[in-house]
Amino acid sequence: MFNAKYLWTNDRNQFCQYVQYSQTLNDVHPHALTQHLPQEFPFQRITNKKILQHLSAYLRKKLDVLEFPIKNLESPLREWLLLPLQTLLDLQHLLGALFFAETIKKVVMKRQHEQLTSLLGPTIYECILKRASLFMPLLPCNITPKFSQPDLLANILEAGQFFQEYCLCNSSKPLLKRFTLKFNPTLAWNFEHRTDPTEQMKLISLCNSLINKELKQ
């Protein structure tokens, strides 16, 4: 049976990964910490290792993230836990924009064009205009998000989050908790979608390709 002590003895690299996933709280969204720390407490700026260790232990208990099973290191999504929040948000926007790529290309109204470029940013907008045809066939064709609003921008956001949720469905609860803590706690998630394993892996592969080719920091 694998455990942290075994990793320390036999696989230092994986042990360091385990510590990084299980101990680090530097990327927890500040709003998730406000109910456990004084307002505007500079948690991310603390450098004293002993203080940081004790404070992290306190927060892991308060946030109910004491566990990060070693088996989660085998998940194809584990690297998402180390991505900056902005990269994950950009991934949502890019996935949603790919789903609506044909509609986006037809936008001619100046105001809507400005709204799209403001939401997506120049990098993602350029990708949609110039390279969407390369990635669109990789979107699973039998996965269709449901939309609650008629607005294109709102639908892009809903579609992007849906595709991210679909990738994370069936992941362990500790992994999901670590992932969602990166985001503003007001954002609601649904990880109960009915999934097709083949389509899910196809979508995960597309996401990782987009991260490495289009969103690399």
Helix/strand layout:
Blueprint: H1 4-10, H2 12-23, H3 30-33, H4 49-62, H5 85-99, H6 101-105, H7 110-135, H8 152-168, H9 173-180, H10 197-213
Strand content: under 5%
Structural class: mainly alpha
Number of strands: 0
Instruction: Determine the fraction of residues in helical runs and give it as a percent range.
Output: 55-70%
Number of discrete helical segments: 10
- Encode the helix/strand succession as letters: HHHHHHHHHH
Which parts are unreliable, with pLDDT below 50 for 5 consecutive residues or more?
none
Question: Can you walk me through this structure?
Answer:
The chain has 217 residues and is mostly helical. The chain is 58% helix and 0% strand. The protein has ten helices and no strands. It has helices at residues 4-10, 12-23, 30-33, 49-62, 85-99, 101-105, 110-135, 152-168, 173-180, 197-213. The longest helix is centred in the middle third of the chain and has 26 residues, at 110-135. It is globular. The two termini are 37 Å apart. 19% of the residues are buried.
Summarize the model shown.
This protein is 58% helix and 0% strand. It is mainly α and 217 residues long.
